[in-house]
Amino acid sequence: MTNVAVNTYTHSVTYLADNILKSFKDIIRLSGLDPAKFANDWESNMRAIKTWLGTGDLEHVFLEVFDPRTNVLIVRWDIDIVYGWSGDGSFWTDTEQLKYAIRKAGVAPADATYDILLKNKPGRPDVPGWGPVAGRSTDGFVRHSLGSTIEHYGLGGSAAYWRKS
């Protein structure tokens, strides 16, 4: 008898991390923002997301678009991590749903910039280049949930965005 083992959870972590970053790339590009900073930070972002997805410590990934002169939030995109590990084998990313929401959120001002923030459970392992920071205030903003947008064997991400009410 021959046994074959596949580390499916590792594949799920890689699939989810890759599609979180691809979703943010689409948001940045379709919102009219300069993707150069995002491209330069890709490796660091991927390392942090994969590490904390792998340990089960990653709770949320945020893309904050803000005015660099005032540091005030313009719009925020969230991906909430869902750890519902199951072996049903499904995997998908709903890029059309995300593109529709990006059109609804509108184009960012020409001088806007962005940051990616990760929220983890207390006690997560350290990742070089990453440390505690506070996010910008969402006071006066309304959250619009998009539902599940990324899924791989029950490890998934639900997207939402915040805009001024």
How much helix, percentage-wise, in residues?
Answer: 25-40%
| Assembly state | single chain
Percent of sequence in beta strands: 25-35%
Instruction: Give the helices and strands as they follow along the chain.
Output: HHHEEEHEEE
Mean pLDDT: 92
Radius of gyration: 16 Å
Q: Tell me how many strands there are.
A: 6
Number of helices: 4
Largest sheet, spatial ordering of strands: 3-5-6-2-1-4
Low-confidence stretches: none
Outline: globular
User: What structural category characterises the helix and strand content?
Assistant: alpha+beta
Distance between the termini: 62 Å
Largest sheet: 6 strands, antiparallel
Question: How would you portray this structure in words?
Answer:
This protein is an alpha+beta fold. The protein is built from 4 helices and 6 strands; from the N terminus they run H-H-H-E-E-E-H-E-E-E. It has a 6-stranded antiparallel beta sheet with strand order 3-5-6-2-1-4. Helix 1 (8-30) packs across helix 3 (42-55) and helix 1 packs parallel to helix 4.
